[in-house]
Design brief:
The protein is of the alpha/beta class. The chain has 2 domains: about 290 residues, ATPase, nucleotide binding domain (Nucleotidyltransferase, domain 5, 2-Layer Sandwich), CATH 3.30.420; about 60 residues, Dna Ligase, domain 1 (2-Layer Sandwich). About 35% of the residues lie in helices and about 30% in strands. It contains 10 helices and 14 strands. The strands form 3 sheets. A 6-stranded mixed beta sheet has the order 1-4-3-2-5-9, with helices on both faces. A hairpin with a 3-residue loop joins strand 2 and strand 3. The longest helix is centred in the C-terminal third of the chain and has 29 residues. It is globular and about 60 Å long. About 40% of the residues are buried.
Length: about 350
């Protein structure tokens, strides 16, 4: 029987305010409830529920569900995971947002700089600016560079319809969200341990893969790849002549460690396509910034594929590790092996919850 969901409650004696991080992905919902006690982040409960069965497809497959269906799924998950707080933050899927790096004229007056950015942003956003929520971040300059007449700006735009959908989901589920954050920033908060060195994050979702390089907790380059974990599942299903549900189990339990050469070749073929694109982003960053990427971190649902980290190490010839976001939380020792195994799937939810905790500091 295919596991549709898992959830674990780790309640101790409460002393701090509990907060909830919610990751609404294309193939599943994830929640993580944390609290802070004497400066220590404590994991209280977590859970995941597949969206596929709610949309008439198999577990692990990407869906595009209406707000009321997502809200029903979230309500089910909150009940099953024994969540005890309504105070939450929510992720925004990267596929529903736009990140653009642009060079714009420098203005010493902050108001003038703001005007320049808002006017120039229109050139990079494929819909009317009135239809999106726009934000930006002026990238820090290296101390050793000559002052340029331009500034590098990260533009961030989210369609207002996406925000409205998420607000409807949260309201219908009886929750209260104080912020909505693009999942890339949540993942960075959860998985980057050495902010001073350039780190490449490869976030393998169900329908697509996000890859970006982070330095000093700032995203230096990002790229979306239209292939993800469900492509691996489909390759296994076709190669082995089995159904999608069974293939999803094999991906997580066997993956690239399978002794069968034909199956291994199929799985490697999908990851080779993903990693080749990621390597192009990798090389682009090193060429433009004249610095080497120190570490690669694999995260997302596809990151739990057995044997993937060993394959990635050979492919990139760079230190590579699996994301372990729960390492930033306190939990019973007997839970650590499970939390480490499932960690890549919960990076965004943990990152959201960590930001939410900062509101209470």
């Amino acid at each position: 029987m295919t596991r549709m969901s898992f959830f674990t409650t780790i309640f101790g004696k409460k002393k701090g305010a509990s907060v909830l991080g919610i990751d609404i992905g294309s193939s599943s919902l994830k929640v993580v409830q944390l609290r802070k006690e004497r400066g220590v982040v404590v994991l209280e409960t977590y859970g995941e529920l597949a969206l596929g069965p709610y949309g008439g497809v198999e577990v692990g497959q990407a869906t595009n569900l209406p707000a009321d269906t997502i809200a029903k799924t979230l309500t089910d998950l909150i009940r099953e995971a024994s969540v005890t707080t309504t105070d939450c933050g929510v992720s925004i899927p990267s596929a529903r947002s736009l990140l653009a790096f642009v060079e714009l004229p420098r203005r010493d007056n902050p108001d003038e700089q703001k005007t320049v950015i808002e006017l120039e942003a229109r050139k990079y956003i494929p819909v009317p600016v009135s239809e999106v929520q726009l934000d930006w971040f002026i990238m820090p300059e290296s101390e050793n560079t000559t002052r340029s007449p331009n500034v590098s700006v990260l533009l961030v735009a989210v369609h207002k319809d996406e925000i409205k959908l998420l607000e409807n989901v949260i309201t219908t589920a009886g929750l209260s969200a104080t912020f909505y954050e693009i999942e890339i920033f949540s993942a960075v908060r959860a998985v980057v341990d050495e902010p001073a060195k350039p780190v490449m994050i490869i976030d393998i979702g169900a329908g697509s893969t996000k890859t970006y390089v982070v330095e000093q907790n700032v995203i230096g380059v990002s790229h979306a790849i239209p292939h993800g974990g469900q492509d691996v599942t489909q390759a296994i299903a076709i190669s082995s002549g089995i159904d999608i549900a069974h293939a999803e189990q094999i991906k997580k339990k066997t993956g690239l460690t399978d002794a069968g050469s034909e199956l291994r070749e199929q799985v490697e073929g999908v990851f080779s396509n993903i990693f080749s694109e990621a390597k192009r982003v990798f090389s682009q960053f090193e060429s433009e910034h004249h610095r080497s990427v120190a570490t690669i971190v694999l995260t997302g649902g596809g990151g739990v594929t057995k044997g993937l980290v060993e394959y990635a190490k050979r492919f990139f010839s760079v230190e590579t590790r699996i994301a372990d976001p729960f390492a930033k939380t306190q939990a019973p020792a007997f839970m650590r092996p499970v939390l480490k195994e499932i960690g890549p799937e919960f990076s965004v939810a943990v990152g959201i919850a960590l930001r939410k905790l900062e509101e209470h500091s």
